[in-house]
Amino acid sequence: MRKSILITLGRLPKCLDLARAFHGAGWRVVVAEPFNWHLTRVSNAVARAHRVTAPRVSKQGYLDDLARIVADERIDLVVPVSEETMHVSRLKDRPGFATPVYCMPHETVVRLHDKRRFIELAAGLGLDVPETAAADAPEAAGIAASGDFIVKPVFSCSGRGVRFLTQGEPVPDETFQEPSIVQRRVHGDVRSTFTIAHQGRVIVTSVYRGVVMSGTVAVAFERVADMAAIEAWVARFVEGTGYSGFISFDFVVDGEGRPFAIECNPRVTSGIHFLRPGAVVQAMLEPEKPLADPFREERLFQQFFPCLTETQGAMFRRGRDFGRKLDVLRRAKDVTWSPSDPLPLLTMTPTSYEILALSIFKGMTLGDAATQDIVWYPDQAAAGA
Fold first, then answer.
1. Considering its fold, how many domains does the chain have in total?
2. Residues 6+ apart with CB under 8 A from 324
3. Pairwise CA distance, residues 21 & 26, whole Å
4. Are the beta carbons of 144 and 165 closer than 8 angstroms?
5. Does residue 76 belong to any structural domain of this protein?
6. 367 and 344, same domain (yes or no)
């Protein structure tokens, strides 16, 4: 009998990658999404798309909607993708809910998403991380006085609230409006990872760098090799925590080639685009089976429309690398385009209307607009929700 998967978000290219991967493996793909129109709704890989209550509107309503879909659609596997993972993980503790959810328990994913608690955990495992302190702790002033530093909310995503400051500047007053950290800034090359793990063992890791940025979010990215130090860091963390599922990290590699992890995302990131669809499914469902040749041939990908916007904007701003961005736009493969499934790219403007409208009329960045209704906010964490 054909199995069914519920993907709990549909608006982002990484959701489309998962939908296509499982559809190609013979699964029936169902998507749950707070937006009415979204990227995967028009994909021929998706059998059905359900609109659900946004977690920001009602956390309980969101979980109730997911549980109803699981029952009605006879779902065999629930797979959270992005920031909604912190909410979906609570299904694992829901009384009477027996369907597998592809993530770690709720307390674990929230702990890793919390930028201060993640640093404490990694440091406890003997791994390299920057000196970090709660913004209201006495140590924060010492970090700010001793070198360049960064301040950010502990539950920030898509660069929300992140500020880069120079040595001796005061910690901004607005930092104290929500739980935040002060972190020593490591100068070097930024690298990101995406890993699929099982019971403390890495199945596959892709290491990549952003080559065109929209704020702090990469909209074009390139897979990089010879990152053994980063891969070893990830493997030690996965082993030390007994991790299973998706996990991603951001690193800064200093001038000596030493990687410092600056934050963890216990979810899918753009690194999934570098993996073959069949490899993704095998890594998730058959983790004990050796994974041969997991990577696509392409090393350079882009999200075409935001990459186009950044390239166009660079035409009118000095020193913004117009020529380089134009070259990336010309060479990089779009993450959504597929000749056998063309509508997600061809209809992206209308299906992205809700994100674009928030960006245009509310003045949000595209990153904020794409996640504002699904993120895990401090008030929710404080309430134990």
1. 3
2. none
3. 9
4. yes
5. yes
6. no
For the entire predicted model, the pTM comes to: 0.93
Would you give the DSSP letter of residue 335? Answer: S
Closest-CA residue to 18 (of 375, 379, 207, 280)? 280
* The two structure tokens encoding residue 110: 């929230």
What residue type is assigned to position 35 of the chain? F
Same domain? For 327 and 204 the reply is: yes
d(CA 69, CA 62): 11
Q: Are residues 204 and 322 in the same domain?
A: yes
For residue 91, the SS3 value is helix
Model confidence pLDDT, tens digit, residues 155-198 = 887 677 788 999 989 888 766 778 899 999 999 999 999 999 99
Tokens coding 131: 């000196």
Provide the 10 A C-beta neighbour count for residue 23: 20
Q: Cα angle at 130 between 128 and 133, to 5 degrees? A: 130
Residue type for 333, please? K
pLDDT in tens, 60-102: 999 999 999 999 999 999 999 999 999 999 999 999 999 999 9
